[in-house]
Write a structure and sequence with these properties.
The protein has 5 helices and 4 strands. It has about 190 residues and is mainly α. It has a two-stranded antiparallel sheet. A two-stranded antiparallel sheet has the order 3-4.
Length: about 190
């Protein structure tokens, strides 16, 4: 299989189903940002972290491929002419959203209560989590914008919202595991 097709040389690309759109189309921006997020999560997974977290991140990376595929499929192309679904894969559903919630609750039970906002940083691994969280929020914003123009599965939006929360809690958990200092944001008084 060749990596280059030359079909995008004029600034367009194909969605699932064949519809061609400009490479800066909001749908492309949405799933392209999911791809960027997935790469940052791979960077977190490559750090010296516990196996449970690594396995959870692999699960999330697989789910992000599903999110990308769902976003890359325009609603009018979701069903084939024979009535079958174009994407013959498990979709993002309540179960995967609940998994993130369970993982957050599990990690939160081990952490001190938060009393202030926390400045990102303290350890390189923790910083990677915060970068991934910010990219996730951008992917969510783009997907919400897309949902105002076209149908987007509501589970995709919920998943991205939970995932950014998960990445924040993961940053706190890894701060604890790595004995990194959490620096509270305490604004100066006027």
């Amino acid at each position: 299989m060749k990596i280059y097709t030359k079909t995008g040389d004029k600034g367009t690309t194909a969605l699932f189903g064949g519809t061609r759109v400009p490479k800066n189309h909001l749908r492309i921006e949405s799933y392209g940002t999911i791809d960027e997020l997935n790469s940052y999560i791979g960077l977190i997974r490559d750090q010296e972290i516990d196996d449970l977290t690594k396995n959870t991140l692999i699960k999330i990376q697989n789910e992000l491929f599903t999110v990308g595929a769902m976003l890359a499929t325009p609603p009018e192309k979701e069903t084939l002419k024979n009535g079958k679904e174009r994407l013959n894969i498990p979709k993002i559903n309540n179960e995967v959203i609940q998994f993130l919630e369970i993982e957050m609750d599990r990690m939160n039970d081990l952490l001190p209560q938060m009393t202030h906002f926390i400045l990102p940083g303290g350890h390189q691994t923790v910083s990677f989590c915060h970068i991934a969280r910010c990219v996730c929020r951008r992917a969510e914003r783009l997907s919400v914008a897309l949902s105002h123009e076209d149908d987007v599965n509501s589970n995709v939006l919920m998943y991205l919202n939970r995932l950014s929360d998960y990445l924040f809690v993961l940053a706190r958990k890894l701060s604890k595991d790595l004995q990194a200092n959490e620096v509270k944001w305490i604004p100066n008084k006027l």
